[in-house]
Amino acid sequence: MLILGIESATSQVGVAIGGHEGVLASAHSARDRRHAESIAPQIKFVCEQARVELKEIGVVAVDIGPGLFTGLRVGIASAMAVAHGLGVPMIGVSSLDLGAFAVEHSRRLIVPCYDARRGEVFTANYRSVPGGVQRITEPTVSTPDELAAELMAAGEDVLLLGDGSERYREQFESISHVEFAGTSVQFPSARSLVELAHPKAMREEFVAPNEIEPLYIRLPDAEINWKTRDSG
Q1: Which pLDDT does position 221 carry in this prediction?
Q2: C-alpha closest to that of 46 among 22, 17, 72
Q3: How much is the pLDDT for 92?
Q4: CA–CA gap between residue 196 and residue 16 (Å, rounded)
């Protein structure tokens, strides 16, 4: 069963194809706010690289967030359109799960930290378990200072990753038990998306395209601005 993965929760957008043989092809680009222009060419590219025709895809996997509103909306809409056109089911995976999976063998507390804009980050805590990672806290949005205080209070070794950890590095680097995973894993990966979606596909954990639910956590900026205006 071939899986097409579309990932667009952050400033990077990525597409990958894979199945039981692993990831056959992938493409990623960091063209901030230009997700809509990147996804279709990337789908064509990875199909060519994998020597796969789009009609051979059996499942479409998509990053459901949390993430930047516009990127998520574009990625999920694109994935739904492809799945609907092919008549195939979908699988949704959290961006935070993708980040943690990239460092699944770490013995530290794994904390993905993605830039949410407006001085905030999306985050959750994970631990390595046999066969992958386990999320131990719910996805949340907080300020970097709030997250730093939580990590300080936790008092255990932490592996911090994501573009949020890089953007707000000065808030975390004074914490002696925090290690930075580095820029190679600062964005969720479409490769990880395909790898995480494969076992779900084997268990037939599918949803119909119209049942995919994005994990926004907070309201989009436009709605927040209107609410602020109405309350003023």
Answers
A1: 52
A2: 17
A3: 98
A4: 12
- The whole-angstrom separation of Cα 120 and Cα 68 is 11
Coarse DSSP helix, strand, coil percentages of the chain, rounded to the nearest 5 percent: 40, 30, 30
State the architecture of 96-185 in CATH terms.
Answer: 2-Layer Sandwich (3.30)
- Close Cβ partners of 200 (under 8 Å, ≥ 6 residues apart): 91, 93
Distance of CA 54 to the CA centre of its chain: 23
Query: What is the DSSP secondary-structure string of 46-62?
Result: HHHHHT--GGGEEEEEE
**Could you tell me which residues are beta bridge partners of residue 140?**
123
Q: What number of other Cβ atoms are within 10 A of residue 105's Cβ?
A: 8
Q: For the chain, where do the domains classified as CATH 3.30.420.40 start and end?
A: 2-94+188-226, 96-185
Tell me how far apart the alpha carbons of residues 155 and 177 are, in angstroms, rounded to a whole number: 7
Contacts of 152 (CB under 8 A, 6+ apart): 175
Taking the chain (232 residues) in runs of 10, the rounded mean pLDDT of each run is 96 95 94 78 97 97 96 95 98 98 97 96 97 96 97 94 97 96 95 97 96 86 45 47
**Under CATH, what is the fold of the domain 2-94+188-226?**
Nucleotidyltransferase; domain 5 (3.30.420)
CA angle 180, 220, 148 (to 5 degrees): 25
Residue type, 185: V
Rg of the chain in Å (alpha carbons) = 18
